[in-house]
Here is the input.
Amino acid sequence: MSSVATTQIKLTPERSRPSVRSRLQDALPKLVLAPSFAITIVFVYGFILWTIYLSFTNSKTFPSYVITGSRAYQRLWGWTFDTDPPSSWYTSITNMGIFGFLYIAICLALGLFLAILLDQKIRGEGVLRPIYLYPMALSFIVTGVAWKWFLDPGLGLEQTLHQWGWTSFHFDWIKNKDFVIYTVVIAGVWQASGFIMAMFLAGLRGIDGEIMKAAQIDGATTFQLYRRIVIPLLRPIFLSAFIVLAHLAIKSYDLVVALTSGGPGGSAWLPSNFMYEYTFKRNEMAVGSASAVIMLMTIVAIIVPYLYSELREKPR
Amino acid sequence: MSAVATPARQASSGISSKTLNRVVIYGLLALFALFYLMPLFVMLVTSFKTMDEIQNGNMLSLPHAPTFAPWIKAWSEVCSGLTCVGMKGYFWNSIKMVVPAVLISTLLGALNGYVLTKWRFRGHTLVFAMMLFACFIPFQSVLLPMATILGSLGRFGVTLQNATGFNFGLGNSTVNLVFVHVVYGLGFTTLFFRNYYEAFPTELIKAAQVDGASFFQIFRRIMLPNSLPIIVVTVIYQFTNIWNDFLFASAYAGSGDVMPMTVALNNVVNTSTGVVEYNVNMAAAMIAALPTLIVYIVAGRYFVRGLMAGAVKG
Here is the structure.
């Protein structure tokens, strides 16, 4: 087909003469892409620079554009060690650590576990899979209403078990400032683990059945088969799932708002909530911007190497 | 965990242990299904109960005398803060925001994907990488500048209104949110279409070019008719994301009668005047959940595919 193309073009030389029209034709693809790219440059990268700039000013309620140095960062740094009583920033980053670690670890473990179970030629898989996955389609503002109720000691699980006769049962984490972050973990895992399950399941289905058969013939037990062969083969999925979970964890915002409204005394805050509160409610715009910059840098450290390697491989 | 236990039993062999194995697997799967379904179930049954039954009954029990009253109240008279006009207005706010935002971002994504795969130029990977990175940024890092810009556009809108009698949509919260969601959704839609068009045979495009088809003719006659699966994926993904958004909505339309559904729901639930009507709250939550839930039930397969496309392999 391409040989036909070249001859045809050679036969009609007047077409290759650069006219205004054909030059416009050549530039057209770039012109079509240009608005989107320009929007990205301005509203993503420009705005990020703007936020970084604001973090070096003394902006309070309104943005100020006089650079006053790294005072906002110094305050955050000071608060990082301000543990008695814990500063909001200390609480936010400690919560991020607890939440991030448990959320990622439990989602990966549970997702893999469910995927392996579902991969045992289960009847009714078509019914179970959507059930595990639907939380991802709903806003946490919605399901948070149910979770909040469920975790409330006076209404939910505790009361139900009391009614069923287990009166010594006690579960008030959502009202306890030391434990409230763990309720956020429970709800977060509930929301995302089904999706991670789907990722692992897709990975399992992609594994060559011959390898499994060969291993079984060699007398490998099911456990050995999974530990030695299947799980190592799933390594790329672990990486993708980790990236997804890590950036979801850092971006989590409505989870905390819907479930705990920030928790007793802001004890359930994550950095995203800290940023919102300090910027829009406490009129500390510079500090809010500095915390946003720190969130962004954390994401950059995780995402940029990943994107680089992903896009690098492509042109073979 | 049971994966550890099951092979040990299997090793000791015998048909009965195999049956036991299956029972354990099915039991665990069912248990987790209950865990995932529980919140939705609680929401649904509670929304049909009377307050009496909620206070005296069990949260997991089915309603004795199902009533639609909480749904009706949630739709047309529930209070969000001090205004008691129900969720219906906010529901339409969300619809008015979602529909244009989804359409515009999907169309732009399709065009971008088309250019980035079939009309490549030097640096196309960099351009794509820069747009893709926008999918991952925490939106807190652009929240404040956008608020400033939208604020000054709003003031400019007022000036225009005074001068010409028409504000061209500047300062309108719905227009603002459509704009914001298009801007920050572009990365995703471009990603979806780029990956899809990557596999589309370039020879077809070449042949059409030889026949004298223009850039847009090829897009309209060849690319679009062959893009139905990815259009469905993109529309569903964008619809779900934009409908469920809370951060942008609360920052740029956080109060008054311009609130989208999610913000209004959060206000309703946290309104603490008088007795908290859990049944009405749950009904309001169900109303907010219904559009995405229906989309998920009807076309969940495509939704999952969209999630995967964002996660696996750029």
